[in-house]
Amino acid sequence: MKIIELREYKIKPGQTDKWLNWMREELLPYQRSKGMVIIDTYLRTNDGTDFFVWLREFEDEASRKRIYEDTYNDWWIANIRPKVFTLIEEESISIKLLRPVDL
């Protein structure tokens, strides 16, 4: 059964353009190269604060786990993760797993 991740990050003040450019130019292409399906991306603003919201799709939990292991490797931890948290608030990360309902 397909799994959809609904992810939301609070972008640090003044960093929205940098974050969006970095996502567009580096992060999304990298994640796609690892097999992630990015359904869509959104920008939500609440009280002057920008939030990056996006949806990723996986075939099932086993493929999600495998893709995570391949994507979030030692290289990611050493080189990418530190930059991520210069642009978004680490404690703001919200990840919800959604499963389709056949109605």
Give your account of this protein's structure.
By secondary structure, the chain is an alpha+beta fold. Helix content is 42%, strand content 32%. The protein has 3 helices and 4 strands, in the order βαββααβ. A 4-stranded antiparallel sheet has the order 2-3-1-4. A hairpin with a 2-residue loop joins strand 2 and strand 3. It starts with a strand and ends in a 5-residue tail after the last strand.
Radius of gyration: 14 Å
H/E element sequence: EHEEHHE
Low-confidence segments, given as residue ranges, are none
Shape: globular
Strand content: 25-35%
Portion in helices: 40-55%
Number of helices: 3
Strand order of the largest sheet: 2-3-1-4
* Number of extended strands: 4
Please summarize the sheet with the most strands. 4 strands, antiparallel
| Alpha carbon gap, first and last residue | 15 Å
> pLDDT average, as an integer?
95
User: What is the structural class?
Assistant: alpha+beta
Task: Write a compact overview of the structure shown.
The protein has 103 residues and is an alpha+beta fold.
